[in-house]
Design brief:
There is one protein chain. By secondary structure, this protein is of the alpha+beta class. It has a domain of 149 residues: Up-down Bundle (Outer membrane efflux proteins (OEP)). 61% of the residues lie in helices and 15% in strands. Strands 2, 5, 7, 10 and 11 form a five-stranded antiparallel beta sheet that branches. The protein has a four-stranded antiparallel beta sheet with strand order 3-4-8-9, with no helix packed on it. It is elongated. The two termini are 23 Å apart.
């Protein structure tokens, strides 16, 4: 589907491209194609940004282990003074010294008892004082340190670490997808380019045959029908060649799109259709554990387990300590400015949920169901990925077999064409049979190219399915 979209896009842009400008030909190897695709692929760039985001979140959550220190400062201006009442000591003493008086000694005790009774019956007097809060300031620092938060801090840091690991696995997955797409586009371009060469070679054979048949017809060695058959075949191959060239142009533009080059950039592939000597000797055993998709699903389960612990931690006691150091000043009492007040303090807090047990049990149960769903998704997709691995293995083996069969078919077609040519030269073969032999050769050569390219694609698909494409 991606290839179809690219081809449609290229076909829409084709009329707007100026071919009059001569550009330097880009000599492109398969490795450089992969590297350029990785540099320009937007999914890979997004995945790399996701890694940076996950690292930032991990660092932010790690800071929860450390105390939070904050500063505070403020100033207030109360326009009207506040009037306060201050108590005053009673005017009467609790006892009277009567030793120096002429009062008889036996009366001293009763008199002092009477004075004490009067003092006790008098309510102290009060006097008003003014409190001025014009420009009162407050400045200080505060420290808060969690001691125990129901395991949420530890769990949060573990989940943040898993998030970073997931971001790296996702980047690996996007890179493998970009490499697969780039290789398919590269080999498609090589395939079409080789088919253009085949069509040109076939056209050259027909042109040579036309000259020979025309000379023979002029010498009345063959009839006009042979010449007409060659020219009919020439027209047919001309149409095939034109279609192949159009396909080559579109595949080149699709490749330019993937590697981030201008659509008019000429490309010369360095890695052409290589011989397939031996089957790729790679094992599919334990391939599931190497796949990024499988690792991502495993980490999703781990994240869901963390969510269960977080849900449980929300309803566990929390313990913390705190301290503050502050000064308050510019307070005037009865017109006199007092020295700044030190109002520092320390405290410890314990928070124990009491009535949230029902809500908490349901939240925990919901998180446990989410974890179970993630486990089932892992099991289901693991089976599908195992099937993909087996299918990719069979496809690569079948593609290798097709290559060998196509090579044998081409050798047979070459020999058949040689024999047909020899027989036609001694007038033991008809032109129809000779043209048929040439067509069989062209078809066999084209199928061999398709088989070799198909094997290369099946090979890279096998590497991706087994988690070995990087």
């Amino acid at each position: 589907m991606k290839r179809l979209i690219l081809i449609i896009l290229c076909s829409l842009l084709l009329p707007h491209i100026t071919f009059g400008q001569v550009q330097e030909t880009l000599q492109l190897s398969l490795d450089s194609c992969r590297a350029m695709a990785l540099r320009t692929n937007y999914d890979v760039k997004i995945a790399q940004e996701t890694i940076e985001k996950a690292n930032a979140e991990k660092n932010a959550i790690f800071s929860m282990y450390f105390p939070k220190i904050s500063g505070m400062a403020g100033i207030t201006y109360v326009f009207k003074d506040i009037e306060l009442l201050q108590s005053i000591e009673p005017l009467f003493p609790s006892s009277v010294d009567l030793s120096s008086t002429s009062i008889p000694t036996e009366l001293h005790g009763p008199i002092n008892d009477a004075v004490g009774s009067i003092k006790d019956g008098i309510v102290g007097a009060w006097k008003p004082i003014e409190l001025s809060l014009k420009g009162v300031f407050l400045a200080g620092i505060m420290l808060q340190q969690p001691i125990y938060a129901g395991g949420r801090i530890v769990t949060g840091n573990q989940m943040a670490k898993i998030g970073v690991e997931m971001a790296h696995e996702n980047e690996k997955l996007k890179r493998s997808e970009a490499i697969l797409e780039a290789e398919k586009a590269y080999w498609l371009f090589v395939t079409v380019r080789e088919k253009v060469k085949i069509a040109e070679t076939y056209m050259a054979l027909l042109n040579e045959a036309e000259i020979q048949v025309q000379n023979a017809e002029e010498a009345q060695m063959v009839n006009m029908n042979d010449l007409m058959q060659v020219r009919v075949k020439q027209n047919e191959v001309k149409m095939q060649l034109q279609m192949a060239k159009s396909g080559l142009e579109l595949s080149r533009m699709a490749l330019c799109h993937i590697i981030g080059m201008d659509y008019s950039t000429p490309i010369l592939p360095i890695d052409t259709v290589a011989q397939v000597e031996t089957l790729l000797a790679l094992s599919a055993d334990s391939a599931l554990d190497k796949r990024s998709e499988y690792k991502l699903l495993q980490k999703v389960v781990a994240m869901k387990e963390g969510e269960v612990r977080l849900a449980r931690g929300n309803y566990l006691p929390t313990v913390g300590v705190g301290a503050s150091f502050a000064y308050m000043g510019n307070i005037k009492i009865a017109g006199q400015k007092d020295a700044p007040y030190n109002i520092s303090n320390v405290m410890a807090t314990v928070n124990i949920p009491i009535t949230a047990w029902w809500e908490g049990s349901q939240k925990i149960k919901s998180a446990q169901r989410d974890k179970r769903i993630a486990e089932l998704e892992l099991e289901k997709n693991a089976q599908l990925m195992e099937l993909q691995i087996r299918q990719a293995t069979f496809n690569m083996n079948d593609a290798y077999t097709q290559v060998k069969m196509a090579e044998d078919a081409l050798e047979a077609a070459k020999e058949n064409l040689r024999i047909s040519n020899d027989r036609y030269e001694v007038q033991m073969e008809t032109m129809t049979a000779l043209l048929h032999a040439q067509g069989v050769w062209q078809e066999a050569y084209s199928k061999l190219i398709d088989a070799r390219i198909d094997y290369r694609i099946k090979e890279v698909e096998f590497l991706k399915a087994t988690g070995q494409l990087n």
